[in-house]
Design brief:
The chain has 42 residues and is an all-alpha fold. The protein has one domain (1-42). Helix content is 95%, strand content 0%. The chain is built from 1 helix and no strands. It has one helix at 2-41. 0% of the residues are buried.
């Protein structure tokens, strides 16, 4: 029983880390692109 719970929580942690690795560079790219566009048009 406890091993199943531990596996579930570690899977959640893995998913969180995975999404962090996906979303952080994506957000960085979007913000830098917007900043460049503002410099260009502003």
């Amino acid at each position: 029983m406890s091993t199943a719970v531990a596996t579930k929580s570690s899977n959640k942690l893995l998913m969180a880390v995975f999404w962090l690795y996906v979303l952080v560079p994506l957000a960085w790219g979007v913000t830098s692109t917007l900043a460049q566009a503002m410099k260009l048009f502003g």
